Design the sequence.
């Protein structure tokens, strides 16, 4: 996909305030902008309102491993139904404070995506209206998709 | 004309038999399974009642949509930890007499899913009468399991299979994964310090352990 549209949008947002965007990557027809955690809502809002990225196609977390720093990242995949274009926003989070502001204020669909990310990777979305586990049982211990989570889970569990 | 005419001619009006034999014979001849499938084994379970394998030859073709009307719970597939309290609740809702068939490797032992999400054998949640190996078992194996269960039923005593309502079962905790509406009795019982999850033994579980 042609990434010119996404690059122009990010360049415009970055030109207004340089601290909003840390780095950009344009590879394999995909455009990725890495932003600091405190400006992700601002960048997303500008992309939605001023550049036509009106759909949050996906929101997911990932764990690079306990030896990495920053350890976690959250990826926002935006899609523009008006311009048929995609962009990825990436936020890197350290292990000490895996917290980022919620985007449920911008897209309602982020609610369950953020709950899933909290459930499996353990990233806390501040301001989320209902940050509970969504896939795993509510009495589950730990976050299952973290790299240092043991395959059989933590002991003890009442059923095993 | 039919068989019954011959029978009435050759037999006396009253027969004396053991009560166990008559009741067990009627129980084993109409085993009604509860309708629910957990994974791919359920496909084989559906096939078992289809025309080719025809489980109705053994009186077990009527899958009941309500656990209140069911006699057999066929656990067909892997039981996730989140599903385990639901399976237990279905089992508790079934009236006595009730039996459980653990169908397939996953329900029996966790199978290849040796991980945090899957219960390593459904016998940790409910008492199992017949285990079926296989991944998935063929429909013939489920038919075999049903006939094995029928043989087992014939050896039981009626006295062991009565419904009991115990204080412990009333106090048992609502499993944390089920939604609890605020301000209801369920919420109160969930807060009870004495309540234990999944720990309510049914009567024949106790019998088996002794």
Sequence:
């Amino acid at each position: 996909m042609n990434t010119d549209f996404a690059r122009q949008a990010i360049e415009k947002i970055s030109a207004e305030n340089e601290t909003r965007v840390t780095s950009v990557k344009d590879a394999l027809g995909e455009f990725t902008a890495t932003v600091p955690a405190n400006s992700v809502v601002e960048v997303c809002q500008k992309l939605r309102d001023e550049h036509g990225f009106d759909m949050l196609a996906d929101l997911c977390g990932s764990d690079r491993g306990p030896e990495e720093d920053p350890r976690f990242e959250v990826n926002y995949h935006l899609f523009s139904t008006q311009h048929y274009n995609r962009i990825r926003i990436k936020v890197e989070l350290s292990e000490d404070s895996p917290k980022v502001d919620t985007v449920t204020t911008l897209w309602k669909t982020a609610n369950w995506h953020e709950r899933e990310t909290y459930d499996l990777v353990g990233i806390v979305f501040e301001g989320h209206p209902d940050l509970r586990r969504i896939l795993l049982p509510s009495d589950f211990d730990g976050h299952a998709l973290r790299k240092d989570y043991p395959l059989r889970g933590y002991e003890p569990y009442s059923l095993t | 004309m039919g068989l019954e005419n011959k029978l009435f001619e050759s037999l006396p009006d009253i027969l004396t038999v053991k009560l166990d034999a008559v009741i067990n014979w009627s129980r084993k001849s109409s085993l009604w399974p509860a309708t629910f499938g957990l994974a791919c084994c359920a496909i084989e379970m559906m096939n078992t009642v289809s025309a080719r394998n025809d489980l109705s030859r053994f009186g077990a073709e009527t899958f009941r949509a309500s656990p209140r009307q069911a006699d057999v719970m066929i656990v067909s597939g892997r039981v996730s930890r989140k599903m385990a309290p639901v399976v237990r609740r279905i089992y508790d809702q079934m009236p006595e007499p009730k039996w459980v068939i653990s169908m397939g490797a996953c329900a029996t032992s966790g199978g290849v899913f040796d991980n945090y999400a899957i219960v390593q054998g459904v016998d940790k949640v409910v008492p199992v009468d017949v285990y079926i190996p296989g991944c998935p078992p063929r429909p013939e194996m489920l038919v075999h399991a049903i006939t094995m269960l029928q043989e087992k039923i014939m050896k039981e005593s009626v006295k062991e299979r009565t419904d009991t309502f115990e204080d412990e079962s009333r106090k048992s905790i609502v499993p944390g994964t089920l939604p609890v509406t605020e301000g209801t009795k369920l919420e109160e019982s969930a807060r009870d310090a004495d309540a234990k999850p999944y720990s309510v033994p049914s009567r024949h579980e106790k019998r088996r352990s002794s």
Observations:
- Chain A has three helices and seven strands.
- Helices of chain A lie at 4-16, 40-51, 110-121.
